[in-house]
Write a structure and sequence with these properties.
The chain is mainly alpha-helical. The chain contains 22 helices and 18 strands. 44% of the residues lie in helices and 8% in strands. The strands form 8 sheets. It has a 3-stranded antiparallel sheet. The longest helix has 25 residues. The protein starts with 15 loop residues before the first helix and ends with a helix. Bound molecules: 1-deoxymannojirimycin.
Length: 653
């Protein structure tokens, strides 16, 4: 360092203590200047020169600043979350880069059964997008640096709608011409309205309604999140044309869905209900407030904080994303040796792929593809997928295999991933049909009375039990029948029909005409529960779900008849004065109620029944796949989306 000579003072003449004070002053000055850099706006060049690119910096999300920052893709950033009430917490997270917001959306997307291919509406330009009001701009994209170059960098709702083959709500909202069927459909709609009205009256904002005590239930599955019944109902209310109720639900999401909660959540449950529910409501309505909430949620659930490009309403929700930065994860205490559950980590694919579609951020798809890769590679006993996997060793922990609880939706998501990819995801297809072969070779059984069922497998020993949950497999096998090897197609459809028949028998052989939680095929039992603890029915959907698919695939009237029997049984035994309740024993007509109206009753059971009595063009299976909570997600027609976006660019430039 060079010192200038001050007149009258010779440096060598300074005393040691004077030199020390001078040096102290100088170093203080340097520190002050450097510190001031942190207070400069991100866009100032000086700041970028001096501060390392990987440094995390607190920023406020959900404000004007957010849009400004989005214009500077090079700016590294971390996240400070701000809650709805304006508190600010600061959390250090991984930095990432983002592009300018680029969602386009046409006007007038509300309340429309729209003809596919026809609903244009002006597509906003990028400038228009940037200057949109904050409340409108909630589905901007977050883009990782390694964004897929083949993807269009804009999600356009209008383009998406043009790429559907049919109008989502069909002709006349799927109303059947046959008067008896229409009357039955109206009955299901009334059941939905009744369930909803009671939830609204007694449990508004809570997760479920307790219909006997007329209050709300929160539980601990959703980590402090609320409103599960609202999120699960959005799309059901919409397709049933319950407009006022849908609007109430939407307003609640917009104004009261509080993401800034503490607690431990089940990734599986939050994904299938909250993320799935919000995504499907967005795809059906185009209402952007619903998208970003979904995006934010998954950010939480991946255990990493990728700051979404959401502003406006979502600003209030970002605090929740900060919460995940603790990065803690856990397994269920009861799951053997801290293992992870097949149906839980295997039931993310559909939702995560759509998050990438909407956000342009490949991280979500990468995550689920990694899970897929591991499962594809790992050795499988007899080609079967056991229910428990150790996240530490990457090995199966026990050899318990089941198409019911713990395994079920993993298989469902394989075939649905293939269908949702517009039949391009060949890995999913191969894995599904090989898994199905292993299931047929090892688990599918015929009872003495001629009923086909799927047993459970414990290290090579069969447990001749089928859970209510496994009854979804009739619909799944039927849905995948047509894409199997040509010589197997009829066989798959027959298998689907046989399983669905067995599940119907489990209902038909009970006094209430509702099915037990699990039924057995041993010790003289045929499709009946033999243990007291298996006799309950909690408004589950799986059996009517299979009726719906089998109806769509075969148009055999027996499926509608069976569905109607279920409606009558629900009315007779589960309807109470203030809602619907599960029952404790399906084998007695002096029923004991469990005092719980499950949210899946609204999202699945009633939706599948409604679809069963509707024309096939209401949520056509050519365009939609249902996630495991019955939330419809659209087939991703990448070719069409890209072509259309290109064409649109040409015609508007
Ligand atoms: C729902 O939450 C989903 O269908 C899930 O896949 C399994 N269980 C319930 C309904 O029974």
């Amino acid at each position: 360092m060079v010192f200038r000579k001050l007149p009258g003072v010779s440096a060598p003449g300074l005393r040691l203590s004077q030199k020390f004070v001078f040096l102290l002053f100088l170093s203080g000055l340097v520190t002050l200047c450097f510190g001031a850099l942190f207070f400069l706006p991100d866009s100032v060049r000086l700041k970028r020169i001096f501060l390392s690119r990987t440094e995390t910096q607190p920023v406020t999300v959900g404000s004007e600043n957010d849009l400004k920052r989005a214009k500077d893709p090079d700016t590294p950033r971390g996240m400070t979350s701000s809650s709805a009430k304006g508190e600010t917490t600061s959390t250090k997270v991984r930095p990432f880069t983002r592009k300018s917001p680029s969602v386009t959306r046409g006007a007038g997307t509300e309340d429309r059964p729209v003809a596919a291919g026809g609903d244009g509406g002006a597509v906003a330009s990028e400038e228009q997008t940037a200057s949109r009001s904050r409340a409108e701009s909630t589905s901007e994209r977050s883009t990782a640096s390694n964004q897929d170059p083949n993807k269009s960098d804009t999600f356009s709702y209008d383009t998406f709608r043009r790429c559907l083959l049919k109008a989502p709500l069909g002709k006349d909202m799927g109303r059947p011409s046959d008067p008896l069927t229409a009357e039955r459909r109206d009955k299901v709609r009334e059941m939905m309205k009744f369930s909803w009205d009671n939830y609204k009256r007694y449990a508004w904002g809570k997760n479920e309604l307790r219909p006997l005590t007329r209050n709300g239930h929160v539980g601990n599955m959703f980590g402090g999140l609320r409103g599960a019944s609202i999120i699960d109902s959005l799309d059901t209310l919409y397709i049933m044309g319950l407009k006022e109720e849908y609007n109430d639900a939407k307003e609640w999401v917009k104004n009261s869905l509080e993401m800034n909660t503490n607690g431990e959540a089940s990734l599986f449950e939050v994904n299938i209900r909250y993320v799935g529910g919000l995504l499907s409501a967005f795809y059906l309505t185009g209402e952007e407030v619903l998208t970003c909430t979904g995006v934010c949620w998954v950010l939480t659930c991946t255990g990493e904080c990728w700051v979404p490009t959401c502003t406006g309403v979502l600003g209030a929700h970002l605090a929740r994303c900060a919460f995940c930065c603790s990065g803690t994860s856990w397994s269920w205490g009861w799951a053997s040796a801290g293992s992870s559950i097949l149906a839980e980590f295997g039931t993310l694919h559909l939702e995560f792929v759509h998050l990438t579609e909407l956000s342009g951020n490949p991280i979500y798809t990468e995550k689920v593809m990694n899970i897929r890769k591991v499962l594809n590679k790992i050795e499988k006993p007899h080609g079967l997928y056991p229910n428990f996997l150790s996240p530490v060793s990457g090995n199966w922990v026990q050899h318990h295999v089941s198409v019911g609880g713990l395994g079920d939706s993993f298989y469902e998501y394989l075939i649905k991933s293939y269908l949702m990819s517009d039949r391009t995801d060949q890995d999913a297809k191969t894995m599904y049909y090989s898994a199905l072969k292993a299931i047929e070779d090892n688990l599918v059984q015929k009872s003495a009375g001629g009923l086909t069922y799927m047993a459970e497998w414990r290290g090579g020993v069969l447990d001749h039990k089928m859970g209510h949950l496994a009854c979804f497999s009739g619909g799944m096998v039927g849905l995948g029948a047509d894409d199997g090897p040509p010589d197997k197609r009829q066989h798959f459809l027959d298998l689907a029909a046989e399983i669905t028949h067995t599940c119907h028998e489990s209902y038909d052989r009970s006094a209430t005409k509702l099915g037990p939680e699990a039924f057995r095929f041993d010790s003289g039992a045929e499709a009946m529960a033999t243990r007291l603890s298996d006799r309950y029915y909690i408004l589950r959907p799986e059996v009517v779900e299979s009726y719906m698919y089998m109806w769509r695939l075969t148009h055999d009237p027996k499926y509608r008849q069976w569905g109607w029997e279920a409606v009558e049984a629900l009315e007779q035994h589960c309807r109470v004065e203030s809602g619907f309740s599960g029952i404790r024993d399906v084998y007695t007509t002096t029923v004991g109620h469990d005092n719980m109206q499950q949210s899946f009753f609204l999202s699945e059971t009633l939706k599948y029944l409604y679809l069963l009595f509707s024309d096939d063009d209401l949520l056509s299976l050519d365009d939609w796949v249902f996630n495991t909570e019955a939330h419809p997600l659209p087939v991703v027609r990448s070719g069409c989306l890209l072509d259309d976006a290109e064409q649109h660019k040409t015609t508007t430039s």
